[in-house]
Amino acid sequence: MTKREQSILIINDEKNSNNELFKTLRERNYQVEFSNGEQWHQLLITRTYDLVIADIQLCGVDGMKIVAEARKIKTSPAVIVIASDATIKAAVAAMKAGAYNYMTKPIKKEELLTTVDQYFMQRKPKSSNFKNIIGKSTKMKHVFEMVETVANSKATVLIYGESGTGKELIASAIHYGSPRKDGPFVKTNCAAVPETLAESELFGHEKGAFTGAIKDAKGRFELADNGTLLLDEVSEMSLSMQAKLLRVLQEKEYEKVGNPKSVPVNVRIIATTNKDLKTEVKENRFREDLYYRLNVVPIHLPPLRERKQDIPLLIDYFLKKYSCENNRNNISCSDDVIDALMEYHYPGNVRELEHLIERSVVICREKVIRPKHLDVLFTEKPYTKANIKVVNIPAETLEEVEKKQIYKILKQCNGNKTLAARRLGITARTLRNKLTRYNGEDSKKNNDPE
Prior knowledge:
Layout: E1 7-11, H1 15-26, E2 31-35, H2 40-46, E3 51-55, H3 63-72, E4 78-83, H4 88-96, E5 101-104, H5 109-122, H6 138-151, E6 157-160, H7 167-176, E7 185-189, H8 195-203, H9 220-223, E8 227-232, H10 239-251, E9 253-255, E10 262-264, E11 267-273, H11 277-282, H12 288-294, E12 297-300, H13 311-325, E13 332-333, H14 335-343, H15 349-363, E14 368-369, H16 385-391, H17 398-412, H18 417-424, H19 428-447
Parallel strand pairs: 1-2, 1-3, 3-4, 4-5, 6-11, 6-12, 7-8, 8-11, 13-14
Antiparallel strand pairs: 9-10
Helix pairs in contact: 3-4, 5-13, 6-7, 13-15, 14-16, 17-18, 18-19
């Protein structure tokens, strides 16, 4: 696993307690330093720490003072206080002053790890400036630069990327890095909305506009006014709805279903797609004029197989996340598992890796996740580095590899599309669309004259 950079200062005079704290935190690869009740302030102002753990029972150490001094520092490390029964009130006061949390003596190993891990999980990853987006590869650094550049503009953004690459996270980073960050961030999944309800979903409706419209309803545009509207998988929108969306983008106004009065709206649009919209335009499945309206600033999010440098970071992040959620501590991955995960091609991208780690943490009853714990995905063959390499055949195109993998998983799930989609890390609708396309291609091949 990759070495963590987080550093912790422990303010405590009890030698035996320090030894236990050090041993426990080093199991997580945290960097640990100690100070007594006299030296802590000098260390705090001369060195850089991410977290301070302080025993407020020490003579001369005030929990609220430590919190106050920590806040003055540029890096502003969080403070966790250790309290005894006699100092609970002081611990509560420190919490009110801004301490992150407190623990009572005797400190249990599980409580310490959970508290510290949860704190670092909530922090922004050091590999990027975006919350919950993990990546230090060259391609992801380019994405981060694009996000920072476009966030302060008013431009419409179109995010391209395969299912499971994290397009919604990038959209969220753009919104919360923009002048509209205090406004609403409203999301709608175009693939999940039935065509008959799409207009009402986007623009709202008046009472009595159609059967079942028993009261007025706000649409996504109204809800997103003065903020950002995310149109997820916009390529799934019907041609008729595309025309209505185009009018809103051109006129900056819309009409509710059942009311012809135009309503002005101030909304920034971010759209995502897992398809090549140029191809969709050529095939007459997507309007060319809408394509140019949406494609003002394109951002291409790379698939996980093209950013393998980020895989160890992601494994590390998901291990911590799901270990905490499932009350499992000290779980790591064997070298064989790391090698296998580095070799795999991930048709479901980051979402698939996340689900894989989550299942492995739940299934593994040992301290170390081994290849046998990954067999839940591949029941026909052990999930090993050697077998995974067979999947990635250079002579085949990426689409052919994906197609074979989808059919393989579908067979393992006995044709259950919902289960297969879950294992692949994609939506059931996306899976159905892919299968429809495959069936059409196979039918065309069978009907082609020799």
